[in-house]
Design goal:
Layout: E1 2-7, H1 10-17, H2 19-27, H3 34-41, H4 45-57, E2 61-69, E3 72-79, E4 81-86, H5 107-131, H6 149-170, H7 194-197
Parallel strand pairs: 1-4
Antiparallel strand pairs: 2-3
Helix pairs in contact: 2-4, 3-4
Length: about 200
């Protein structure tokens, strides 16, 4: 089971968004049978079986064990990942395009860049998995509290300057066998959890 899987197929995305199937995916972080799941989600076993077959057809769950129980074969299924992200590729005709209106101060442009990140990394994960290779990536996540809007603007300007300097230092257009890498740096207000608000 993967920690995170990217759903690129529109049909698989549609299947995963059904509330009953999403609940089954969550329950299947640990292997379970239709009978076990029926008791947990309050649905008839036949209906759970129907949803499990649909999830299996789209690669969202997989068979981990089949065992004889009385007169029937019990199939133990498990989700293929602990969590899922739907790639913009699933909405190919309307996926965001950062090239449409590049504006580094626009929240909507940040969303378009983030969507491209999900799409590209999803594609790379799929390729690396098929090739049975590791994917070299790096991410940095942190939080900073600014005293003023002026401090935030100064931080953004200094960060942009530092990253630009680093890119200029290490970028080598002529490097034989070199491979381009995308660098994304984002700054946005933190979302405050409801518990913290009260």
């Amino acid at each position: 089971m993967f920690e995170v899987a990217v759903i690129e197929d529109p049909a698989a995305a549609e299947v995963s968004l059904d509330p009953v199937r999403a609940r089954l995916l969550a329950e299947l972080a640990e292997p379970g049978s239709a009978t076990m799941l029926a008791a947990k989600v309050g649905l008839p076993r036949q209906k759970v079986n129907y949803h499990l077959r649909t999830l299996e057809q789209h690669g969202l769950v997989e068979l981990v064990e089949e065992r004889r129980k009385g007169n029937v074969n019990e199939r133990l299924m498990q989700a293929t990942a602990a969590s899922y992200v739907i790639s913009p590729t699933a909405l190919a005709a309307v996926q965001p395009d950062p090239a449409r209106s590049p504006d580094r101060l626009s929240a909507r442009w940040l969303l378009a860049v983030s969507a491209r990140l999900v799409r590209d990394v999803g594609t790379l994960i799929t390729g690396a998995t098929k090739a049975k290779k590791r994917l070299a990536t790096f991410a940095l996540d942190g939080e900073v509290r600014f005293a003023t809007a002026a401090d935030r603007a100064a931080f953004a300007e200094e960060l942009a300057s530092c990253v630009t300097r680093l890119v200029a230092k290490y970028h080598d257009e002529q490097a034989e066998g070199g491979r381009p890498h995308r660098v994304i740096v984002a700054l946005h207000p933190s979302v405050i959890a409801k518990e913290e608000e009260s």
